[in-house]
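Milestone 3.1: sequence recovery, worked example.
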């Protein structure tokens, strides 16, 4: 079955592409949702081994999507999945990490509340032979190379570019002029800083757009609703709202609705099913989807492959992945493809150990460029790139091409 979806995809320099998504094709079995799944070779069969994912909360649609993808992926390899939440407390996550190491767990993949505890988790992984993968947060101008080989992967989307494209789309929606409110996330968080940089880049290109208020929404609906209510009380006219993630966008929507204000285009940055349904209903304008289910599952598979003996190219220890801009034109197709009850991914086929010749990432992936990634932050005095990274840089184009060549399932171009 084919689905043709007009999307915006970050990583390419285009606002929209035609996406043709084919059902995952593998040789062995079909899931209840109808997607064909590849067989699990003995080389990657976990046989009930415990795999742990640490993340912020299940009281958040993004992390519910993360949890869903993580569970599906681990269980596809016959692993026992354990999810632990920290409710935004880095110290809790670090304690959980240590507890799971003490329990003998060897594969842990996380998304941290902020960058602060990532180096400590990486060191614990290195000291205890744990295969560790991390998503979103990382202290600026640091890398997995700083602690050793067990920190297998740091991955993040190109958040600056994603926010830039989405902000331009929002500004164009209101004719390139008007009063815009920016509700940010958690100050100091890596994606928050990058998304603000992308928003500001777009803002500089629209001289008739006026930023009338900018306040943190702390990645949640309640704080964002409170911030937006305060802005409404002191700003006479609001033409659009840029939300730093889906939940702050929904919080802003709730405040506007309570104030009797309708028709204000609002954006978010997650791609949660509930937010896309609001787009279908005309209550929100657009979101950038970072594909939370895929993100969690892919992170796990990279850690698993290293644990099962894969040799990881230095450039593949820091990766960017692609996402989709969703609006009313492609919301229904996005929901049916990426956010429905059926699982669109052939998780085992993502594994280079399981399928060394025809592995498939099932999304756009490319090596992260450190100079571009951390351009928003001052480079520390005396900073030098990790020798392994520097030595591998001449292979950047070849490694990028390899990822592109292997992307067959759910292809978008």
């Amino acid at each position: 079955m084919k689905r043709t979806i007009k999307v915006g995809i970050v990583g390419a320099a285009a606002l929209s592409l035609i996406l043709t998504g084919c059902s995952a094709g593998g040789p062995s079995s079909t899931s209840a949702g109808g997607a064909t799944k590849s067989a699990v070779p003995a080389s990657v069969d976990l046989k009930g081994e415990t795999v742990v994912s640490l993340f912020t909360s299940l009281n958040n649609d993004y992390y519910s999507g993360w949890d869903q993808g993580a569970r599906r992926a681990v269980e596809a390899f016959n692993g026992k999945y354990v999810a632990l939440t920290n409710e935004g407390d880095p110290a809790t996550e670090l304690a959980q990490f240590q507890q799971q190491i003490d329990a003998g767990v060897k594969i842990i993949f996380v998304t941290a509340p902020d960058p602060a505890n990532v180096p400590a988790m990486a060191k614990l992984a290195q000291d205890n032979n744990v295969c560790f993968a991390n998503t979103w947060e990382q202290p600026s101008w640091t890398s997995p190379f700083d602690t050793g080989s067990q920190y297998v992967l740091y991955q993040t989307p190109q958040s600056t570019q994603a926010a830039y494209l989405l902000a331009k789309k929002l500004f164009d929606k209101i004719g390139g002029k008007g009063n815009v409110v920016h509700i940010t996330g958690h100050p100091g968080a890596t994606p928050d800083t990058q998304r603000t940089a992308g928003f500001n880049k777009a803002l500089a290109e629209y001289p008739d757009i006026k930023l009338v208020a900018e306040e943190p929404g702390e990645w949640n609906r309640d704080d964002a609703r409170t911030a937006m209510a305060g802005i409404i009380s002191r700003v006479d006219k609001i033409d659009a709202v840029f939300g730093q993630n889906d939940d702050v966008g929904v919080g802003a929507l709730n405040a506007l609705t309570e104030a009797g204000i309708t028709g204000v285009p609002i954006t978010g940055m997650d791609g949660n099913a509930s937010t896309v349904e609001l787009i279908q209903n005309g209550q929100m304008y657009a979101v950038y989807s970072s594909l939370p289910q895929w993100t969690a599952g892919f992170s796990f598979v990279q850690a698993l492959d290293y644990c099962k003996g894969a040799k990881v190219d230095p450039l593949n220890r820091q990766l960017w992945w692609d996402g989709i801009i969703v609006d009313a034109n492609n919301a229904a197709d996005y929901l049916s493809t990426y956010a429905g009850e059926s699982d669109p991914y052939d998780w085992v086929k993502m594994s280079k150990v399981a399928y060394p010749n025809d592995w498939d990432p099932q999304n756009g992936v490319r090596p992260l460029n450190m100079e571009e990634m951390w351009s928003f932050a001052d480079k520390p005095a005396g900073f030098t790139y990790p020798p392994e990274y520097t030595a591998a840089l001449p292979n950047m184009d070849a490694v990028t091409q390899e990822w592109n060549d292997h992307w067959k399932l759910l292809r978008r171009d």
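The radius of gyration is 21 Å. The first strand starts at residue 2 and ends at 7.
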